[in-house]
Amino acid sequence: MSRLLLAPMEGLLDDVLRDVLTRVGGYDLAVSEFIRVSGTLLPQRNFVRVCPELARAGRTRAGTPLVVQLLGSDPACLADNAGQLSRLAPAGIDLNFGCPAPKVNRHGGGATLLADPEQLFRIASSVRRALPTGTPFSAKMRLGVRDTSRTLDCARALAAGGVDSLVVHARTRAEGYRPPAHWEWVARICEVVAQPVAANGEVWTMADYRRCRAVSGCRDVMLGRGAVADPFLARNIRRVMAGEGDDGEVDRSADWQELLPLLASYWQQVCAKVAPQHAPGRLKLWLAALRPNFAGAAALFLAIRPLRTVDEVNQRLWQHGVVAAAGDGRPPDAG
Predict the structure, then answer these.
(1) How far is C-alpha 203 from the chain's CA centre?
(2) Which residues, 6 or more positions from 327, have their beta carbon under 8 angstroms from its beta carbon?
(3) HSE (CB half, 13 Å, CA atoms) of 158?
(4) Whole-prediction pTM value?
(5) 293-301 — which CB contacts under 8 Å span 24+ positions?
(6) Would you say 181 and 171 are in contact if contact means Cβ atoms under 8 Å apart?
(7) Which one from 51, 77, 99, 218 is the annotated catalytic residue?
(8) At what angle do helices 183-192 and 151-161 cross, to 10 degrees?
(9) Which residues pair with 312 in a beta bridge?
(10) Cβ–Cβ under 8 Å, residues 317 and 328
(11) Is 218 considered catalytic here?
(12) Around Cβ 269, how many Cβ atoms within 10 Å?
């Protein structure tokens, strides 16, 4: 059976949004945002703080298994931390070789490591040795730093280092998130490694999903920005692939009504997690991503965009039908 994986997105797709998206359904597993490893052995509480799912048997509240992602460049330190993390029994451990952020790359982490396939092998093999037998071990990579001259060597190095599976974001670091995604390169990687490979990048619709699978040859697909922009994408893919729907245009008004209580839950959880001055920005970020698919999200984003406080946002959410917004079930002016 093909699998749908929920991608990590630093600064947006954290445990709160994972909770909401996996409640909608359709995902076989989710991957956490990266936990940076640099020179020290992190206490277990650090892993649990980033991934509260670890306190729930490594699953979201909806029951979706969570793979925890580590980012770093030192083989020994990554191995020590992977061993520490494995004691918390995540659904798997993943290594990040895909992050294009300059701050991360300047410190030798993420996609910049794709310039050195031998270092990828050293990291993967060290982590593999540190993990208990049976712990699922994966890695996410891009196609390279500036070009694809070492793409296949990087994939071979990770495979030889002992990963059980690969996710390939089908762009180089230099390409960032600019379309297109080069799914044909994922197909080439599939030809040179024996491990399962999942394709990632530019899957926004059912039609994109079909093309991605056809071009990449992958059975498994990871959804990132497309999942954030359309929380029902994975569920709809499941329905269509099961013969319970079609690829045609659909009226999203019913989906928007289903999304309203999920937006309320997201807002409540964000307000409980982050400082009040940062909470409105988090909501605006998700609403901005939802705008292309939902007219209601576009209207709500415009209404909330100038607001700065939690109380102001609560009032506006009530006006737009997002009930029980970070409160006690009463509208903010109900006394």
Answers:
(1) 13
(2) 314
(3) 31
(4) 0.93
(5) 293/229, 293/230, 293/252, 294/252, 294/255, 294/256, 294/259, 295/252, 295/256, 296/256, 296/260, 296/320, 297/256, 297/259
(6) yes
(7) 99
(8) 50
(9) none
(10) no
(11) no
(12) 19
Q: Which residue has the tokens 């059976």?
A: 1
Q: Quote the tokens at residue 156.
A: 């071979």
pLDDT tens, residue order, the chain (335 aa): 699 999 988 888 999 999 999 999 999 999 999 999 988 999 999 999 999 999 999 999 999 999 999 999 999 999 999 999 999 999 999 999 998 987 787 777 899 999 999 999 999 999 999 999 999 999 999 999 999 999 999 999 999 999 999 999 999 999 999 999 999 999 999 999 999 999 999 999 999 999 999 999 999 999 999 999 999 999 999 999 988 877 666 678 899 999 999 999 999 999 999 999 999 999 999 999 999 999 999 999 999 999 999 999 999 999 988 865 444 445 555 43
The closest alpha carbon to 181, from 208, 150, 146, 220, belongs to 208
**Range 83-88 contact pairs with CB under 8 angstroms and sequence separation of 24 or more:** 83/130, 83/131, 84/41, 84/42, 84/44, 84/47, 85/44, 85/47, 86/130, 86/131, 86/132, 86/135, 87/44, 88/44, 88/47, 88/48, 88/54, 88/58
Q: Which pair of structure tokens corresponds to residue 335?
A: 């006394």
Angle at 183 between CA 152 and CA 147, to 5 degrees: 50
Query: What type of residue sits at position 93?
Result: I
DSSP state of 167: E
User: SS in 3 state form for 29-57?
Assistant: EEECCCEECCCCCCCHHHHHHHCHHHHHC
Of 325, 326, 283, 329, which is closest to residue 308 (Cα–Cα)? 283
Question: Could you give the CA distance from residue 292 to residue 322 in angstroms, rounded to a whole number?
Answer: 19
- d(Cα 78, Cα 124) in Å, to the nearest integer? 9
Cβ-based burial of 54 (10 A; exposed 0-12, middle 13-18, buried ≥19) = buried
